[in-house]
Amino acid sequence: MTVNRDPREASTGASAVGGDGLRWLTGLGRGLKRACPGCGRGKLFLGYVQMQQSCKDCGLVFEPYRADDAPAYFTIFAVGHVIVPSMLLLEQTLHPATWVHMAMWVPLTLGLTAALLPRIKGAVVGVQWGLNVRN
Ligand SMILES: [Zn+2]
């Protein structure tokens, strides 16, 4: 992974991280909505998490922005920090039967993971776009 600087930035002294300073945040927000980080209108994914080759709206090519395993790690991190403390709190306060835990936490874990994974992948790609990080 490399950070490619826009040649236009060399003349201005602005960096990919600097620039307007909030480009990565714009990309993050658009990515969380599973939208193109460049324009916010086009779709980022063909299906669940398969990236399109380029934005149908603005033409931004998505191929250089590859999230690899980062979305899976971030999703596990986020879901784990919601589910595990909740499970421990329930166990400490109400001490329900094991089948109650299984009936609650397994579907909740799977559902939360399924809901977050594409959004987090979009956010990772959006931040890569915002910081001009290309693979
Ligand atoms: Zn676009």
Describe, in plain words, how this protein is organized in 3D.
By secondary structure, the protein is mostly helical. The protein has one domain (16-134). The protein has four helices and two strands. The chain has helices at 7-12, 23-32, 70-93, 98-131; strands at 2-3, 133-134. The longest helix has 34 residues, at 98-131. The structure holds zinc ion. The site of zinc ion has 9 residues, from loops.
Q: How much helix is in the residues?
A: 40-55%
What structural class results from the helix and strand content?
Answer: mainly alpha
Overall 3D shape: elongated
**What portion of the residues fall into strands of 2 or more residues?**
under 5%
Small molecules in complex: zinc ion
Distance between the termini: 5 Å
Report the total helices.
Answer: 4
Overall mean confidence score, pLDDT:
89
Number of DSSP E strands:
2
Total number of domains: 1
Order of helices and strands: EHHHHE
The main sheet comes to:
2 strands, antiparallel
Q: What Rg, in angstroms, do the CA atoms define? A: 19 Å
Poorly predicted residue ranges: 5-18
Strand order of the largest sheet: 1-2
